[in-house]
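Long-time lurker. I teach an intro course on protein structure, and each term I like to show students one example going from raw sequence to a predicted 3D structure in token notation. This year I'd like something fresh instead of my usual example. Would anyone be willing to generate the tokens for the chain below so I can use it in lecture? Attribution to the forum is fine with me.
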Amino acid sequence: MTSPDNYKMFAIISEARTGSTVLSHKLGLLEGVGCHGEIFHPDKIHSGLEGHPDTSVRRRDPVGFLQTMMDLAYEQKGQSSIIGFKLFFDHNRAITRFLIDQKIPIVLLERENKLAQYSSLKIAKKTGKWHSKQKLSKPQEEKNKLEGKKVSFSLLEFVAFSARSQFRFQGFISKIKKQHAPYLHVTYESMFNEKNWLQILQFLSIQVEATKADSTLEKQNSEPLLERFSNPKYAECCCKLLNGIPWLSTTVNVDLDSLLTEKSSCS
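-- Reply from a regular --
Happy to contribute to a lecture. Here you go:
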């Protein structure tokens, strides 16, 4: 095994549909930096490395598996001095504890606009497309052509989704602070702001001036928020109602500006 002294480890911890794929690609473009995908995904190890352990090894010894994946990345990806990976909250609790206990730098990535995240997640589940480079099976493509990508807005589902997300982030930050582990809380919305991007690089001790995101990673849902739903009037009215309730408005955190720029459909 390669000595950990040869490289520094970091992790991107987040939820689905928060821009973690773009961030990991963006970091992976930098000289001397390597970044895995979801190597702890429940169904598959997302890695382009050769000869990596299988899921049975990962299940028996998650920490040992992580160390092996970091070593392989160092050996196969030009001996990067900084190597990271993506991890979602529900992927592997043992690894989450390991990161905090070992004080591995964590970039905590959150999407402030919960309505955008909620709609994006529902669309991805419906269409089977999780990133712009993904190739779908012909049956799935035909299904998508027939059914389209619009999804139905559910008030209870959206509130539950937003509350769970808020609970996850607040709880995780509390754990990190208690252990005095290094972390940087960034948002999807500010990720490409030059000042915030440089803050991420400084946090990870990456010495570069600037870089651009992979142009092949296109935004998947570029249409206005309400147009993503099959029941847009209902979605709009519900969001305006939620924003009028103080204790709920901070939970759902709906970007009202994106709704109010469109023609209002409820008084």
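Some talking points for your students: Residues 212-216, 260-265 have pLDDT under 50 and may be disordered. The beta strands are 8-14, 33-35, 82-88, 106-110, 183-187.
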